[in-house]
Amino acid sequence: MDDFLREIAMLKHVGQHKHVIRLIACCTRSAPLIALLEHAPRGDLLTLLRAARGKRQDLNIKAESNVTGRPSEADTEYTNLSDSDPQLDDPKLSGIYVHTRSRPVPLRWLAPEAIFASQYSSASDVWAFAVLLWEIATLGGFPYSELSNQDLPPFLTTGGRLPKPARASPRLYQLMTECWSDEATVRPTFAQIVDKLTIQNQLYVDLDCVFPPVEENFADLSDIDVSTDGSVFK
């Protein structure tokens, strides 16, 4: 109930923006609680990325088998992706949000200061955005797939980071690592990120390859403890 009301309040505060899923109406006075959101006809970004991954694998099988036929619709699919602007939403997806004693948290997208001290800021959002860039560069890879929820925080505190995607450019991965700096104050701002990503004629991800299957470690996505100050770990 409280989480639902917070989501409604956040969407009302944001208002209308072409890059944010719009709240059309809501019912909060009686059960069932309902939020009517803008329809996203192409679904979520993760589904699109993994669909593209599968399409690339199909094309590679055809090439290796010397199979020819009618042209693939991959180009049409990628072109269609640019027909509408991407939009933000905040779904509580299974396997993404970890339930703590006080609230669900997207552990694998959290900056260290958010995990250990419950400090959220634009700098922690920058960290999360770089994880999103990593997901895009891997066509929907699962962050830290080899680590359990319990092992992830100590991995980060010892300097561990997501590896460079095989087909990501060095320039793009350099930007990611800058966003994953231990010191929140030295991470780039979103304005600086936009400047770096809008440099023309830059190839950031080479899609002309076969991406390995997505590996998701659901063996230990167990609930985790929070400290008395609300942080995920102490």
From TrEMBL:
<dbReference type="GO" id="GO:0007169">
    <property type="term" value="P:cell surface receptor protein tyrosine kinase signaling pathway"/>
</dbReference>
<dbReference type="GO" id="GO:0005886">
    <property type="term" value="C:plasma membrane"/>
</dbReference>
<dbReference type="InterPro" id="IPR011009">
    <property type="entry name" value="Kinase-like_dom_sf"/>
</dbReference>
<dbReference type="GO" id="GO:0043235">
    <property type="term" value="C:receptor complex"/>
</dbReference>
<dbReference type="InterPro" id="IPR050122">
    <property type="entry name" value="RTK"/>
</dbReference>
<dbReference type="GO" id="GO:0004714">
    <property type="term" value="F:transmembrane receptor protein tyrosine kinase activity"/>
</dbReference>
<dbReference type="InterPro" id="IPR000719">
    <property type="entry name" value="Prot_kinase_dom"/>
</dbReference>
<feature type="domain" description="Protein kinase">
    <location>
        <begin position="1"/>
        <end position="205"/>
    </location>
</feature>
<dbReference type="InterPro" id="IPR001245">
    <property type="entry name" value="Ser-Thr/Tyr_kinase_cat_dom"/>
</dbReference>
<dbReference type="GO" id="GO:0005524">
    <property type="term" value="F:ATP binding"/>
</dbReference>
<feature type="region of interest" description="Disordered">
    <location>
        <begin position="64"/>
        <end position="86"/>
    </location>
</feature>
<protein>
    <recommendedName>
        <fullName>Protein kinase domain-containing protein</fullName>
    </recommendedName>
</protein>
<dbReference type="Pfam" id="PF07714">
    <property type="entry name" value="PK_Tyr_Ser-Thr"/>
</dbReference>
